[in-house]
Amino acid sequence: MSEDRTFDLVIAANRLPVDRETHDDGSVTWRRSPGGLVTAMESVMRGREGAWIGWSGNPGDAPEPFHQDDMYLHPVPLTEREVGDYYEGFSNGSLWPLYHDVIVPATFKRRWRAAYETVNRRFAEAAATITATGGTVWVQDYQLQEMPAMLRELRPDVRIGWFNHIPFPPVELFMQLPRREDLLLGLLGADFLGFQRKPDADNFLRACRQLLDVSVEGDEVRLPDGRIARAAAVPISIDTSALAELATTPQVQERAAEIRRQLGDPEHLLLGVDRLDYTKGIRHRLKAMGELYAEGALDPRTVKLIQVATPSRERLAAYQQIRGEVERTVGQINGDYSPIGATAVTYLHRSFPREEMAAMFVAADVMLVTPLRDGMNLVAKEYVACHGDDGAMVLSEFTGAALELEQAHLCNPHDIARLKDTIIRAIESPIADRERRMRTMRRQVMTNDVQRWAELFLAALAAAPERPAQ
Ligand code: ADP
Ligand code: G6P
User: Fold this and answer.
1) Where are the alpha helices (DSSP H) in 16-146?
2) Ligand 2 centre and the CA of 36: distance in Å?
3) How many angstroms separate the alpha carbon of residue 274 from the centre of ligand 1?
4) Given the CA of residue 92, which atom of ligand 2 is nearest to it?
5) Which pLDDT tens digit goes with each residue over 270-292?
6) Domain 7-236+452-462, what fold?
7) Residue 285 and residue 414: Cα distance in Å, rounded?
8) ipTM of predicted assembly, 2 dp
């Protein structure tokens, strides 16, 4: 593969920021890819002259590279079988559950692992082709953990960073992974490894110390060949001011008022926004809400919940199961408690434009963010950026966001009784208390936005101990 252009900054992520959609008449359109990685990285790359390597979301031949929003998008192909083995298999059937506290069991298959290696090598080769001499390659997330070492072999001149958007598990869990050492050595091909929280970086360093023949001092790992890789926490964020600005536009404000009217002007509007994933705690949230309606603690005529559940990884059994459970529970709650013409729980299983998401955040009095485990959770930060001072947020302790948004009503979503108390506390919190909490959280999210995150990461990468060979 020969490429005419090379770039000083190259991002590699499993997904491109846009997904290819081929219609029945053969025409092709592109739509924004799901998830927080794309939300964050798209803002980072806008205005930077960089390239983004990733999969187009469909099996088969990759489209030709193309330009979009100042970015050069370089598609990497995946065969149908690789989608099954690398993406759905090892990435989302082995790593995703293992890295999220095995909320569902992790499955290991040697065939999946082989495909993971093949695809990681393909990404490394693509990056090697389009990165300028002495350039920087920023590898993203758990789908590409073997890529850093593979790229280093091909291009010892480039500086390589890796950022983990999800948690890094405690060594006791990580140890379950077959050929776990290869994965760590793959990561250690990077000069700098970024994690959402310090405990994630510590888990990684502990795994290196315990499972590899390396020396770990502080946040540095020294490899047998003398190279050093550094690992530290750099918590990700959102494009706060752009989102806050969008939320104050008359269109979004009017739409927010309209959403409330459409719901019958509830006294309290609660909101959940998640990919339909078993890590997000949607079932626990609905259980708590159902009991609160049942006990009469919440009146279904005046307290409404909107639950947005974005379709995700729909061919995997665990995702089909959680969808079934969520949809059954929503049906039960509405069947048991909704008044005629105004359902208690509005369930939305689809994607929305940014403006509509912002309008929902503006409209909601109480945001419910209750994951069982989440690397960061950008939705929590988006609510803080969009909503005025009179908002309130229930936030799971098991999110990265909980370390930064301490003024949220923190909760353990496994403890349904306490979760119910916390929801009631958030709903009933007096305005002065709401204002104090929201202002502090907004300051935090305004100061620590995604641009600052990218600057911190790239500065740490540039300063990482090991300078690449020139
Ligand atoms: P994850 O990356 O696990 O999906 P995050 O909360 O970090 O979780 O990021 C989710 C991102 O996807 C946020 O930017 C959120 O606004 C966006 N999002 C979630 N649901 C929808 C939806 N139905 N339509 C459009 N965007 C959505
Ligand atoms: C999370 C992961 C991302 C992933 C996104 C959507 O944010 O950290 O790597 O892209 O979920 O999941 P999907 O499997 O559809 O790419």
Assistant:
1) 36-45, 80-82, 96-99, 110-130
2) 7
3) 6
4) 14
5) 999 999 999 999 999 999 999 99
6) Rossmann fold (3.40.50)
7) 9
8) 0.99
